[in-house]
## 1
Amino acid sequence: MPTTTTRVNHPFFASVWPLLSRVMGRGGMDEHRKALLAGLSGNVVEIGAGHGVMFAHYPPAVTRVLAVEPEPHLRRRAAEAAARAPVPVEVVDAVADRLPATDQSMDAAVFALVLCSVPDPAAALAEARRVLKPGGELRFLEHGRADTPGLVRVQQVMDATFWPRLAGGCHTGRDIVAEVQRAGFAIRTLERYRFPFGGTPFSFHMRGTATRP
C-alpha cells in the first residue's frame, strides 16, 4: 500500500478555489455533484478532494470515504468539512498516482474537477484502477477539450503558458474521456454539457460512470 508525504503547495489557488467552487455550486454545479455520487455504496476513494465540497453529497449507503488531497491549505479545509459530512470521511495527505489503499479494496473511485490538474492523468487513472474491485465504478465530473478548432487552439496556448501556474496545475484542453478509455475503463454513461453555458475555454464539461472490467 503506497504512502507518501506530499510537497504540493498552491496557496493562491487554494485561497480562491473554495469561493469559486461555491459560486459554481449556486450556478448549477451542485446538481451535477449530487448526480455524480447518486447510488454509490460501500468504500469510496475520492481523489483530489480539495476543500471537501463533495462530502455533503455522499449518499448514506457509503460506509467510508478515503479523501486524498495533497495541497495543505485545501486539506485543512477538507478536514473541517469531513467533520460535518453525513458519512464517515478520512482525509489523508497523498497524491493521485500513489493512493494509500490496497489492491482491489474500493467499491468506487471519484474524480471531480481533478483530472485536469494532476501531473499525469494516465498514472492517476491506473492507480484508481489498481484500488478498485473488479466491477468497481469510476465516477468522473470534469472539464476538458473544446469542440471547435478555434477554442482548442486557445486551450493549447493557455495550457502551454500561464494557466497551469495560475490555476493549481489545471489544463483546460485535456481529452478526459479518451484518458479514461485508455486506462482500461468501460464507460457506461456519459453526459456532456456546457458550464457556464456558451463557449469559453472552461465550458466543456462531462459527467460519467465507468467500470473496472
Note: The chain has six helices and seven strands.
## 2
Amino acid sequence: MADAPHTIHVDVVSAEESIFSGEARFVALPGEAGELGIFPRHTPLITRVKPGSVRIEKADGSEEFVFVAGGILEVQPNRVIVLSDTAIRGRDLDEEKANEAKAAAEEALKNAKNEIDIAKAQSELAVMAAQIAALRKYRQAK
C-alpha cells in the first residue's frame, strides 16, 4: 500500500500485460483535455487518455516512460490506473518501426477511398506521430 503523503500506487496495463506497477511520487500523461499531472491524494477522476507518453517519477526519484496509444485513466487518492489497448515501455520503443508504420499510414491516407478509410488512416497516423514524439522524449530524459 502506498505511503499516503509521499507516494501513489501506479498501474499501467495493456491488453496483453502489466507494463508498470509500483509506487510513484508523480505521474504526467496526455489527458483528453490536456496534460495531466497527478500527485498523491489527487482528487478522484476518470478520463480518456490521448496517445502519448506517460511519465512516472518513481518513489526512488528515477523516471519510467511508457507510450500509450490512448485509453482510460482512473485516479483515486492512493492509486492511478492507466488502461490502454497498446502500451510500450519507453526502452522498448523502436524508432525505425514507428517511422515505417507512420509512412504506411501516410500512404494509406493518400489512397483512402472513403471516410472510414480516411478516419482509420488519420487515427493510425496520429498514434505513430505520438509514439515517435514519446520516443524522442524518452531519449532526452536518459
Note: The first strand starts at residue 8 and ends at 13.
## 3
Amino acid sequence: MTHKGLVLLSVKCLEKTNQYVSLFFTIKDNGIGISKDARKKLFKEFTQSDSSTNRIYGDSGLGLAISKNLTNSLEGKINLKKRTRC
C-alpha cells in the first residue's frame, strides 16, 4: 500500500516444461525509497527500512522475509535492484 503513488507488478514466463515453470516477477514503485544501509537488512525478519512507516501503514516487517523463504524453498531468487530516478 502506498499513501500516494503507484505500484506495478509484471510477470514474464522464462521457461516452461512438463515438470516446472520458471517465472520472472518485477515489482516497481515510486515510493519513498530505501536507504543504502536499510537495503542490506531488507529481507531479514522484523526489519523495516523506516520504522516510522509502521504507524502509518501497519507493517510488521515480515513480508519480504516470508517472500524470501518461500522463494528459496522453490529454488528461486529474490533481490532488490535500485532504480535511478529520471
Note: The beta strands are 7-16, 21-29.
